[in-house]
Structures are given as C-alpha cells and as structure tokens.
Amino acid sequence: MSPSNGVQAGLPQVGDRPRVVLGVAGGIAAYKGVEVLRGLTESGHDVTVVPTAAALNFVGEPTWAALSAHPVASSVWENSHEVSHVKLGQQADCVVVAPATADLLARATHGIGNDLLTNVLLTARCPVVLAPAMHTEMWQHPATQHNVSTLRARGIIVLEPASGRLTGPDVGAGRLPDPAAIVAAVQDVLRRTPTSDLVGRRVVISAGGTRESWDPVRFIGNISSGRQGVELARTAVSRGALVTLVAAHLSVPAPAGVTLRPVSSAAELLQEMLAAASGADAVVMAAAVADFRPEVVATSKIKKPDESSDMSLRLTQTVDVLAELVRRRDGVLPVIVGFAAETAVDGDELAELGRRKLARKGCDLLVVNEVGRQVVFGAEENEVTILGHEGTHVQVARASKAAISDAVWDAVVQEWKHALPLD
Length: 423
Ligand code: CTP
Hints:
The chain is 33% helix and 24% strand. It is of the alpha/beta class. Strand 18 and strand 19 form a beta hairpin.
C-alpha cells in the first residue's frame, strides 16, 4: 500500500488500527467534523470522538457514536471508572481537533482542562493536529494569533484555515480546511515516527505548471500536475513548518495548513516567490516553469485570417526563477532547492546532467529525476537523486512522492546544520 494511502505498515497501533481521538469544538463547522470522522474510519482508523458540550449543540451524540462505533463523552464526569480523561490522550496515536474554535485554541494554549477534550490535549503525548474554523475577525485577533504561534512552537500542528464563504454572507479566512485534507494531514503524521524537525521554520514551495497566454483564451502550458510540490507542502506541514505554497494550476488539491498563493504565468510566479522567499528558511522550486512565453499577448482573441493560412508565434525567454532566487539571496538562508527533469540514457549521464545544472543554477540542492523512460508527471511515485555541492548525493529508490518529499526535507535539515552549525 502506498504510504499516502491510509494505514501503513509499522504504524503505532492498538489492536490492528491506529487510534485517533477526534475532538470537535463548538462551531458551526462541527457538521464537517462528521466527514472527517467518515474519512478516518473508512481509511482504517479507530476513532473515538470527544465533542465539547457546545459542539453537541451542532451535531448530537448519536451521530458521533453511530459513526465511530464508540461511546461518546464530553465531560470528565462520564464513564469516570475508565479514567477516560487520562487514558484517551495517553493511548492515542494522534489527536485531531476539527473544528478547533478560537476558544478551544485559547484553552489548549493555556493548559486549561475544564472538559474532556482539553484533558485529552493535556495528556496526549502523540502528534496533535488542530484544524481551526472561526470568523475572520476571530482568527486574525492578536490573541488567537498569539495562541497559534505558541501552540506551533510546542510542536502542535495548527493547520491554516481556508478562505471562502463563512457562516453568513461574509467571506474571508477562517473556513475549516477541506475534511479530506484534514484526514490526509492525520495520515501523514501517522505515517512517520513523530518528527517535528521543521518547527519554527518557514518554507516556500512552488508547484504546478505555469501558463503563458498569447491571447485572452489561449496559452502555452505543460503537463505538470503539481503533485510533487503538494506532497512537499503536506510533509513540511506535518513536520511542523509554516508553509507558503505558490501554486500554478494544480490538478491535485492543495493540502491543508498552507498559505496558498495562486499564480498563473512565470512572471507572476517570480513575483510571488521573491516576496515569499524573503525571510524564509528554505525555498523549493518544484514548479514546471515555462522557459519561453509568447513575445506579444493579444488583447482580443486572435482570428484565423482564412482556412488555409498557418501562423507562427514568436517566443521569448522567461526569467529563470530559481537562478534569480539564488542571485538575490543575501547570506546563507534560505536554503534553495531546485528540481531537474532530465532525459538520459543511463544513471551516469543523468548524474552528469544534474551536476551541470546544479552548477549552472547555483542552488544548494538539486533533485534530479529521469523523465524519458518513466512516467513522472502526475504519477504517484518517482525515483530521484538529490545532488548537493561538494559532490554529495542521496539516491532515493522508487517511492511515493510523499517519501521523496521527506528525503528532500531531510537533506534541507542537513543543509541548515552545515550553514548554521551553532543553530
Ligand atoms: N526553473 C525556474 N525558472 C524557469 C525554468 C525553470 O525557476 N524559467 C526551475 C524549475 O522550477 C526547476 C529548475 O529550474 O527547479 C530546473 O528546471 P528544468 O526544466 O529541469 O531546467 P531548465 O532550467 O528549464 O533547463 P533545461 O530545460 O534547458 O534543462
């Protein structure tokens, strides 16, 4: 089974299924918690739901009990002979709270244990994922933002809320991340031995493929799905990083917990990357950026002059975003990682092409993959070599794009150690 596909071999397990506590706080998005519960149980997790008393105003106890096949309690005074306020947290492999309201974030930050869910959070020694949902004003309030920073500094994964329609007619940041993305975030933290080596790090990833317009309805594009960049973002979130994903036309959903910056063309991608890279600890260029764009972009749709005439399009080079990021770097950070898609007859030629590209781009690491013989674009798996300066290289045998992403972050962590040995 692929590692991003739910239950994995080698997971910490109780019985034969990973044990997850799903906390549900009292917000309208509690109804979406039902979908998170379905997603978790259907992908083989043993889920105990701990709603707060307020959450039960939105979705009642019978729904949680029926769908989880476990008794449901929200107060420490229920089932007290089982000491559930201690056992649930201690025995869980992961605790996820969806939705996490402003009130729940505040109580978690301050170690308040005034109901079963906050007691579970105090006793849990496993990874904890909080999926906030609240009105934009509450999310942006300095108290909430301070609480989120404190929780993240402790290694708790606080997903970025999504933006969009809120409870009423209002629109803004504060929507619960997509339930499927929350389930994926839980699967991801369960997939590995808990590691939070990216806590406090700010990373920027580009993903997808740019489109270069030549009139209002036509463009030159490429077949990149954005899957590798999305996996890099997802794994970085689960290792505790603050992630900005600069996304050019993804054909897979963006993961929960990232700050999303949608772009279209190479020029837009350059602007967003330069802005996001300032103050970042690492930048990974996984996007397939067009090397050429039409020299002229027509303002109205270009018409065929007649049935038989051909047309030609004059192209001009785009900026090399990766090289530009390297050129503008001031100091040792951010660590800059490039990707290289090469066609080569054998491993030696591939390594040689990779070495030349690493030298040309000047980045710290280059993730090289062969695109001639194997399907890479849009595929679930890949096989790469991570080249570093001074001739270092890490070979990653055929693996899921999530596992390759972890290998990239491992290499970035090594770069930080070399760059700032006293950090
Ligand atoms: N890249 C970039 N800006 C461009 C083109 C590529 O930042 N205009 C980045 C890609 O995101 C990738 C790396 O450069 O991280 C290498 O991309 P690749 O397509 O393999 O190489 P090119 O620079 O386009 O060179 P060539 O196609 O000639 O091999």
